[in-house]
Write a structure and sequence with these properties.
Blueprint lengths: L2 H13 L13 E5 L5 E2 L10 H4 L3 E8 L5 E10 L3 E8 L6 E6 L7 E4 L5 E5 L2 E10 L5 E12 L3 E2 L4 E5 L6 E7 L3 E9 L3 E6 L11 E2 L2 E8 L2 E9 L3 E10 L12 E2 L5 E6 L9 E7 L5 E9 L5 E8 L9 E6 L3 E7 L10 E9 L6 E7 L2
Amino acid sequence: MKKKNLLMMFVMAMAIMLCPSIKSEASVTAITDYNTGVAVSGITPADRTTQAQLDNTDVYQVSVANDGTSYIKGVVPVTLTKSGYFMFAATAGNDISLSYALYADAECNTVIRSGLTNGSGVYVGAGTYYLGLSAYGPSIAGYNAGVATQFIPAATSLKSGSKKVIALNSTKDTYVKVKVNNTGSVNVKYAAKYGSYVSLCNSKKSQISTKPYLGSTGETNFAVKKGTYYLKFKASADYAIVQYKNTKISEKSGSSKKRAKAIKAGKTVKGVFLPTESTKKADWYKVTLTKKQALKLQLKSSCGGSGDSFQFQITPAKGLNVRGTFQKNLYSVNQTYTTKITSTLSSSLPKGTYYIKVTKNSKKNSGSYSIKFLK
């Protein structure tokens, strides 16, 4: 994710081939696309929305003439057609002291971001900006500068199954629209230099989920009905690689113990908890042991994390001589727990029916789970 260093690698490599150009007229900037050799009137960086694109850089040669002042200045217009994170770097070789910055105006009065040794970057809106180059030394007749740029646009939407590099506005929340085509789980994977809080919002951008914190590499899960939603990122990173996937889940649980859905040996059932559902809502299942044996279950949860959990509670049917209740809380995004339940007095359980009750621990907690009745 260290793209600024990559910018400088391109610029420094180019600077080796640059030499001062002798000019006598007033300060003029000639710009050449270094990759194609074509002369251009300004810089319009290509969008970079994939990792492969991010591994490449736009490089330009900028020729600046001496205007008779101590500072030999050149101004390069930069046109951005959309909001996003703009990265830039410049050098003129080892024998020329060059400073540079991005300005809001052609006169270079309003600085947006100063240039640093290893390159700079800033989140900006669509519009025309100006890269000002300034080399000190009255004896310099002129110079060729190497300029490298990259632009990551702000993502307006993500499709299920897509993986995209998106710009993040570190000064305020970033919203990305997602269309959920199927009621079920929403999985979000995140990778950046710094972590981010990630939450799910409705079509009006009101938060409906919990707000788990993802580190520089992490993922989270939600579950919602079919519709339009927004992912909200509260990040300190400038950009991130984000992947979103919607998976359809058909739930057939019982709404009460009396209506518990039977799970056959060797089979798996799946369910979801929506952020609109109360913590009092419970999904009920039942399994039947046809002989005296241990009850073996594989439990999986995929919830938001950061304290979110699903609770699995197993109780015997009335009349079975079994003491106690088995209970297991599963936390985090993807957690699997395989259990072999026996009684406190024996290595097995009496044959009969056992009930499984699944609940969530907080109102806005959402996600999916599965239960497999192992043979």
